[in-house]
Design brief:
The structure is a single chain. This protein has 4 helices and 5 strands. The protein has a single domain (about 1-125), classed as 3-Layer(aba) Sandwich (Aminopeptidase), CATH 3.40.630.30. The relative contact order is 0.15. The N and C termini lie far apart (about 35 Å). It has helices at about 10-20, 30-35, 90-100, 115-125, and strands at about 1-5, 40-50, 50-65, 65-80, 110. It has about 150 residues and is of the alpha+beta class. Strands 1-2-3-4-5 form a 5-stranded mixed β-sheet, sandwiched between helices.
């Protein structure tokens, strides 16, 4: 497995993974624009196995008023279903943690659905602890992620 920085040429692979993750179609053009807009704030990486992009993650890293150290958050993490259980998420997270530490961050945060047992298991196994409650207010009916209608 190879972990590396995302390049503009990865827009097609990223659009495929994000579409799989959100269950909403995302185009390579959208991904190129998002990569450009988030430059310097988001630091995306991806995982490849035998030349196939199988997962991605992104570190949000920026200064904030709460302390002198930069704020660090795993803002994206997804592994394609056929490649789960192979240590891809862990490898991506270890790389982001190393980058956050190198940047001087004092902690690393991650948000996930409270019912996502697989993600919670990975995060907790890597030393993450519950410390807050996240709330969100939506401004439109269009949501970036589909919710299961159960």
């Amino acid at each position: 497995m190879q972990i590396r920085d995302v390049r503009e040429a990865d827009a097609h692979a990223l659009s495929r993974l994000i579409s799989e993750f959100t269950m909403i179609e995302h185009t390579p053009e959208q991904l190129r624009e998002r990569l450009e807009r988030s430059r310097g704030i988001e630091h995306p990486i991806l995982a490849e196995i035998d030349g196939v992009v199988v997962g991605f993650a992104s570190l949000r890293l920026h200064g904030y008023l709460g302390e002198d150290a930069p704020y660090a958050e795993i803002s994206e993490l997804f592994v394609s279903a056929p490649f789960r259980g192979r240590g891809v998420a862990r490898a991506l997270m270890l790389e982001l943690e190393a980058r956050a530490r190198a940047a001087g961050a004092s902690s690393l945060s991650v948000l996930t659905d409270e019912e996502n047992a697989a993600a919670l298991g990975v995060y907790q196994a890597m030393g993450f602890e519950k410390f807050s409650v996240a709330l969100q207010k939506w401004f439109t009916e269009d949501r970036p992620y589909r919710q299961d209608e159960a």
